[in-house]
Structures are given as structure tokens and as C-alpha cells.
């Protein structure tokens, strides 16, 4: 049963857990965009028939992306404990969890960026090359502007995936909503907290999807 008075008393803990989740997602998303965006562009422009065609680079980076994406997140989280310890000095808490979240999100977002760029009409790229545009001009003036709406949708999908990953990170000391759900909802059989965390995550994801989709539509000039 849902105990509303108890829920009210637990609101400070729920709010603190939610803030930790937002911190984890914010850090991981920022890093995934900073690294994953150029990574995704590189995967696209080094492909066959494009202006920076390079099979070796394409295969190396493609292998690295597929390697990380093939590892289940909970295993990746544990495997990166040594690296996390080196970088932040601890393996517990939202900042520590952000390391594994970032490593998981970078290749995921890179593939979404690559997929977005593949939707661009190759005739547009060829026309730009024909007028003497440099590779950098093609990337910043053609590729990214043409794909901006689908890249925004990719960011939205990445955030939603990070919400799920952050909940898993909470199960082994990452903090956030997942940690609260495990400590209270599972170990203490607290249905009020379990229901609350599930509802909060559902609402959070729906808001992210709605905002992301509306923003993407506002940028889509097609």
C-alpha cells in the first residue's frame, strides 16, 4: 500500500536522490556530447566514398565503439572501478558513477550521430565539395546544420538511456534514485518508496522525451 504521510516525510531523501541522478546524467551527457559528437562525425567522414575515406581509421574506431557497446553496463561499471578510483579517488557516489556512465554513453551517442549524418543527401555533400569547400567547412556548414534535428533526437535518446543506466549504477553505490529504490524499496520492502521512484522516473523520462522532441521539431526546417 502507498503511505502518503510517510511519502511526505521521505520527500527530502527523494529530492536528494533525484539531484544525484541529475548530476550523474548531466556529467555523463556533457562528456558524451563533447567526445561522442566528433567521434560520430569521424566515423561518418572516414567511410567509403566520403572526403576523408580511411578504412583503417574507420575500422579501428568502429571496433572501439562496438567493443564498449557489447559489454552490459553493470559489468562495465564494475570493470571500470580501477579507472574510476584513479580519476575521482573513490568508487562510490554520483561523481564516481559518472565515469562509467560517460564511457557507456560516448559510443552510444557516436553511433547516433553517425546515423544522423547518413540521412543527409549525399548530393548536398558532393555539391559542396564541387565548389571547393574544405573538409572543415563541409562539417561545420553542411553536415552538422543539416543533421541538427536528428542529433537533438539522438541526445534525447542518450539522456533516456542514461536515466536507466544511472538507476543501475545506484544498485552498487552510485547514489541517486536507483540507490534509494534498492535500499528502501527492495531491502526494506518499502512499497511507498518503490512506487514513488518508479513514478518519478516515468515522469522524468516523459518530460525529457517531450522537450527533446519539441526542440528537434523546432530545428527541423524540412
From TrEMBL:
Its main location: membrane. One of its GO terms (biological process) is D-methionine transmembrane transport. SUPFAM superfamilies: MetI-like. It comes from the Bacteria. Keywords: Cell membrane, Membrane, Transmembrane, Transmembrane helix, Transport. It is found in: Cell membrane. Gene3D superfamilies: MetI-like. Residues 18-212 form the ABC transmembrane type-1 domain. GO terms for cellular component: plasma membrane. It is a multi-pass membrane protein. PROSITE patterns: ABC_TM1. Coiled coil: none annotated. The chain crosses the membrane at residues 22-44, 56-80, 86-110, 150-173, 193-212. Belongs to the binding-protein-dependent transport system permease family. CysTW subfamily. This is D-methionine transport system permease protein.
